[in-house]
Write a structure and sequence with these properties.
This protein is an alpha/beta fold. The protein has one domain: Alpha-Beta Barrel (TIM Barrel), CATH 3.20.20. The chain is 42% helix and 18% strand. It contains 9 helices and 8 strands. An 8-stranded parallel sheet has the order 1-2-3-4-5-6-7-8, with helices on both faces. Strand 3, helix 3 and strand 4 form a beta-alpha-beta unit. Helix 2 packs parallel to helix 3, helix 5 packs parallel to helix 6 and helix 8 crosses helix 9. The chain is globular and about 50 Å long. The mean pLDDT is 97.
Length: 255
């Protein structure tokens, strides 16, 4: 049993062979995939894909790169999409101060607004944090809503991970844990309890070894799970079961 807690099956990289990608994931032992929208069009496509495939679920939200185009109608449309039966989370939302494709002040304001929307919708949140650790923690710490969700593609150190855990969030580990220079992430994996971990691909990005350099896909989540199990000195099957149980609980997915 495995769950790929974060993929982007709606992106055009999968338009030519989406059926085969999902079939390969199932053959690799993946029981569920959560595909994550990043703007309104992609959110609609993610929901449609989730409706088409039994093992696929969707999350909807406006990525920090795209929040500069939010207008008065955006959140009404997000509410409509979030009401669809296979939508299991709101996200990915947050801050990206690496590329700064939306102004920082806009990112911060929209992050707060979307946290409140997720609270209204009673959905867990999927948090994007790139080069914005301090600001992300400040916003999450001051948020008065019910703190439940996932720090996607975790890129901080253990001190940050500990603060996220104390706030009630899961830590999601991407394929970068297999990279040679990912010592900080491996330290996080060793020290964070398995009961607080998820595994993800972020497909088509961040392809793990031994396929690094190729397009990522959900079947490859097993390589991340295998490395996490090794670091935690656990059997792969045990680690896969625990992380899948974590994902099924936060997303309310019944397997």
């Amino acid at each position: 049993m495995m769950i790929d807690s974060h993929a982007h099956l709606e992106l055009p990289e999968f338009d030519s062979d989406r059926d085969e990608v999902i079939a390969r994931a199932k053959e690799a032992g993946v029981d569920a995939i959560v595909t994550i929208g990043i703007d309104l069009d992609d959110c609609l496509k993610a929901v449609e894909i989730a409706d088409r495939y039994d093992m696929v679920y969707a999350a909807v939200g406006i990525h920090p790169h795209e929040v500069k185009v939010i207008d008065r109608q955006t959140y009404d449309r997000m509410r409509d999409l979030a009401a669809r039966p296979k939508v299991v989370a709101y996200g990915e939302i947050g801050l990206d101060f690496f590329r700064n494709l939306s102004p920082r002040d806009v990112q911060i304001r929209r992050f707060g607004e979307q946290l409140e929307l997720a609270q209204d919708l009673n959905l867990p949140v999927i948090i994007h944090d790139r080069e914005a650790h301090r600001e992300t923690l400040e916003i999450l710490s001051s948020w008065k809503g019910q703190r439940r969700g996932i720090i996607h593609c975790f890129s901080g150190d253990y001190a940050m991970a500990r603060k996220c855990l104390d706030l009630g969030f899961y830590i999601s580990i991407p394929g970068t844990v297999t990279f040679t220079k990912a010592d900080t992430l491996r330290d996080v994996v060793r020290r964070v309890p398995a009961e607080s971990l998820l595994v993800e691909t972020d497909a088509p990005f961040l392809t793990p070894e031994p396929h690094r350099g190729k397009r990522n896909e959900s079947a490859y989540v097993k390589y991340t799970a295998m490395r996490v199990a090794e670091l935690k000195e656990m059997k792969f099957e045990e680690l896969a079961e625990i992380t899948s149980r974590n994902a099924s609980e936060i997303f309310s997915i019944k397997l």
